[in-house]
Amino acid sequence: MMRMIKRLFLMLIASMLFLCACGETERKVAEDNLVVIGMSQVGAESDWRVANSESMKEAFSEKNGYRLLFDDARQKQENQFTSIRRFIQQRVDYIVVMPISEDGWESVLEEARDAGIPVIVVDRRVNVGDGSLVTAHVGADFYAEGTSAVKWIEKNYANRDRVNIVHIRGTMGSTAQIGRTGALTAAFRNHTNWNLIKEMDGDFTQAKTYEVMRDYLESSSVKPVIDVVYCENDNEAFGAIDALEEAGYKCGDGGVAVISFDATHDGLVACRDGKIALEVECNPLLGPLAESVVRTMEEGGVPEKNQNVEESIFLPEDITDELLESRGY
Ligand code: GZL
After folding, report:
1. Neighbour-count burial for 66-85, b at 16+ CB within 10 Å, e otherwise
2. 49: CA distance to ligand 1 center in Å?
3. According to the CATH classification, is domain 34-138+285-308 in 3.40.50.2300?
4. Backbone angles phi, psi at 214, to 5 degrees
5. 46 Cβ inside 6 Å of ligand 1
6. Percent of the chain, pLDDT > 70?
7. Is residue 295 classed exposed, middle or buried when 0-12, 13-18 and 19+ CB atoms within 10 A define those classes?
């Protein structure tokens, strides 16, 4: 309400100025109509993240009525806190944050609430006791994604006495890592013949995953027998495949089954080519859903507290040229 009054007052001032000036004030009046968004993004660690940033920038573009203040946190949570405090000082109309990890958000979100600025959380979640600190969340069900991958292993390794699995975790403490890891951890409790031979941190990047997988394989006195590598995103899968093939392993076609998440273009191509056995989709195109939350509030409505995007899985035989062309990322 206060923002509407502020904007009406500015419009009145601008209109009065308009009577004694022309083009310059007109542009200023138009500019005052823009809804100002302060946006904090994780970084650019993965193909998924790049597609997500493009979707958010397109949704909150000037042609759609927004002035977007976009900040890349370069994978550091303290950079997100700094940018959000700057947005508060700039008195943006809304804060949109794609949080790196779940914990530590109470104080900065309390400052945003005290300043009367709604916060919309996109993709991963924040872990705060007071639900009023977050106006709405749009994202995905990461535990469900992990469960889809577990079901594939159950189906394809049903009669094995032993299934040797290497697990590459994403950024520790991120909702995507917590959910995808949680589903696999639960499955190990249900399948005593599943053997976690190595768990490593790939931080959702190709470089880090290549490094930890290479070091693991080089340090093993006996070449590990690996049935499945559970990578928590495509960039980890690319790094794991590079290291495995360098060490003489065959990926796909009776060799190591690499499971991956995101289903980005390059991930789907690797799956079609048999290098990745299963792609679990994680849709980065969250811009329109996030923008619909702001639009609902601008129109005086109350947005849904949580909205998840629909997601599916892809097997090599599902991936056609038409499918690849049809996807926006
Ligand atoms: C998932 C997103 C994850 C992706 C990774 O919604 O948070 O972060 O799976 C990205 O590719 O780095």
Report:
1. bbbbebbbebebebbbebbb
2. 6
3. yes
4. -60, -50
5. yes
6. 90
7. middle
Q: What is the DSSP string of 152-173?
A: HHHHHTTT-S-EEEEEEE-STT
Domain ranges of the chain: 34-138+285-308, 142-282
Query: 272-306, pLDDT tens digit by residue?
Result: 999 999 999 999 999 999 999 999 999 999 999 99
Q: Which helix (H) or strand (E) holds 111?
A: helix 106-114
| Beta carbons of 193 and 163 less than 8 angstroms apart | yes
Distance (Å, rounded) from C-alpha 31 to C-alpha 33?
Answer: 5
Residue identified by tokens 């577990």 is: 150
Closest-CA residue, ligand 1 atom 2, reads 176
**Spatial contact of 303 and 296, defined as CB atoms under 8 Å apart:** yes
Ligand 1 centroid to residue 24 C-alpha, Å: 43
Centre of ligand 1 from the C-alpha of residue 325, in Å:
22
Q: Which pLDDT does position 6 carry in this prediction?
A: 56
Q: Can you say whether residue 37 is alpha, beta or left, with left for phi > 0 and alpha for psi between -120 and 50 degrees?
A: beta
Edge-to-edge strand list for the sheet holding 66-72: 66-72, 35-41, 94-97, 119-123, 136-139, 306-308
Residue written as tokens 């083009």?
Answer: 23
User: 36: alpha, beta or left, given left = phi > 0 and alpha = psi -120 to 50?
Assistant: beta
Tokens 């859903």 locate to: 289
The structural architecture, per CATH, of the domain 142-282 is: 3-Layer(aba) Sandwich (3.40)
State how far the Cα of 284 lies from the Cα of 290, in Å rounded to an integer: 12
Helix axes 142-156, 175-190, angle to 10 degrees: 30
Show the 3-state SS of 18-31: HHHCCHHHHHHHHH
